[in-house]
Design a protein that fits this description.
The protein has about 170 residues and is mostly helical. The chain is built from eight helices and no strands.
Length: about 170
């Protein structure tokens, strides 16, 4: 003897909106609170810490997916969802249109900056020597011949940058 099921009531728009707002606020709170709780003493890598980290990642992923329509993994991998037709107009997702417009704007700005040769570009190009690569290779080879290691050359290069072009040998 089976009992007939009562028809399910559909939630009203205000209930749906309240549910979505509650989910958003919960995800926001957990994305902030979970790392803070994990940093409280005693700090150890156990099941609780892993659960807090997983909850934080899940909440952050929810917030990003809510904002952009793509998850963290899709952002990292560069996945772009296929163009989805909305109604009969065939228009793409508004978020995709905005990102495509921004990409096109950046490309146009890049093309525009490549065309004119500004004063700053002439100044930096004018200071560069034509055969700087060969000179740098020769400096590296000379240092290796003297007996310096790569770590010594790296430290010298960092020192030179840090001290505005003053070499280490100038100090002594």
């Amino acid at each position: 003897m089976s009992h007939p099921q009562e028809p399910q009531r559909q939630p009203s728009p205000s209930e749906t909106e309240r549910y979505v707002r509650t989910l958003h606020n919960t995800a926001l709170i957990t994305a902030i609170a979970c790392p803070m709780i994990a940093l409280l003493p005693p700090r150890k890598l156990d099941l609780l810490t892993m659960g807090l980290a997983g909850t934080s990642v899940y909440s952050t992923n929810y917030l990003i997916r809510e904002k952009s329509g793509r998850s963290i993994l899709q952002h990292i991998s560069g996945y772009r969802p296929p163009m989805i037709a909305q109604g009969n107009t065939g228009e793409a997702d508004p978020q995709l249109r905005v990102s495509d417009a921004m990409r096109q704007e950046r490309q146009e700005a890049l093309r525009a900056t490549k065309e004119p040769t500004g004063i700053a570009e002439q100044a930096t190009v004018g200071k560069q020597k034509k055969d700087w690569v060969q000179e740098r290779d020769q400096e590296v080879q000379d240092a290796l011949d003297v007996g310096k290691g790569l770590s010594d050359m790296i430290v010298d290069q960092i020192y030179e940058v840090w001290n505005w072009g003053k070499k280490r040998d100038d100090d002594e």
